[in-house]
Records
---
Amino acid sequence: MTAIRVCSLAELSPSSARKVVVDGKPVAVVMDSAGAVHALGDTCTHGEISLSEGFVEDDALECWAHGSKFDLATGKPRNFPAYEPVPVYTVSVEGDDVLVDVDQTISA
Ligand code: FES
């Protein structure tokens, strides 16, 4: 599959996350505090919690349920209780369009 447009850049704001579904997979599209865009699997690996409903802190996405923080670059949790990573997908920005390819995992 090729990259799919998931939202416009204008729909994102720094330190926030937005849930989209790409090819049936829930994805958290995250803009970090520096304005860079990331795409991670939206489901926490500790429970069935949507990570995009959590908090973006600098370069991590924190699950609101029990506080595991997932690295936006690697998808790895930095603290328990989650210990397995979420996938990190290839994301690109073309003009005002944010595109995600869920077949291209950067890590995990
Ligand atoms: S469900 Fe996310 S840390 Fe527990």
---
Amino acid sequence: MTTIAIIGAGPGLGAAVARQFGRQGFDVALVSRNQDRVDALASDLTREGIVARGFAADVRDPNALAAALASATARLGPIEVLQYSPVPHRDFMRPVLETTPTDLFGPIEFSVYGPVAAVRQVLPGMRGLGRGTILLVNGGTAVVPHPERAGTSIAFAAESAYGQLLHDTLGGEGIHVAQLIVPGAIVPGHPRKDPAALARTLWGIHQDRHGFRHFADDLDS
Ligand SMILES: NC(=O)c1ccc[n+]([C@@H]2O[C@H](COP(=O)([O-])OP(=O)(O)OC[C@H]3O[C@@H](n4cnc5c(N)ncnc54)[C@H](OP(=O)(O)O)[C@@H]3O)[C@@H](O)[C@H]2O)c1
């Protein structure tokens, strides 16, 4: 059995993706900053018959993130699917004319250094398996920058470029890299933007293995 690692595994999308992939037979590594919270989610999943473990790391600390993924591999086995979907911090979303170089450290650490650290850690295992899937989840500012949310707009654009480069470079090795854009908010009960609906979309992307950028809903929704 192989493993999905969910980076930014909270009660919304992270938990829904854990259930979606767990029900399909994946073991689940849950990564967020708070060990108690990922342990509690892992316990819930275990009660539902899913093999799950929690690992604490701040994605803004590349060494800690790599160490968490190394522990996950040691405990659960090779990571076949990596999802990078921590929820961005509110203070990344400042108006463009108030944004200083220092204000961009956090967004770049979060959306660029974190994905690069995670991908570099899991790629040898995916190559060993001969297959893998890397899923990036972003808001609509990855596609249409928003003047009131400069940090995420700038950093998501860089993350998107990294993902597209990986897509183009790794496809020939059976490693599929894709991005899901969620315009607006994740909305419980929404036909396409409920966490479980988004998790089904991500499962479909993993199965279909076609194209880099996918949209959960219309961009102006
Ligand atoms: N929520 C929305 O309305 C919305 C809209 C558009 C796109 N998205 C995308 O959807 C994904 C998030 O889904 P969600 O909102 O339902 O979140 P979620 O899966 O419920 O939780 C995400 C988790 O990310 C963790 N996290 C935040 N900062 C972190 C850090 N520095 N290091 C490690 N973990 C961190 C938090 O846990 P800890 O506090 O324990 O670290 C949080 O519980 C993201 O990719 C986001 O871009 C969300």
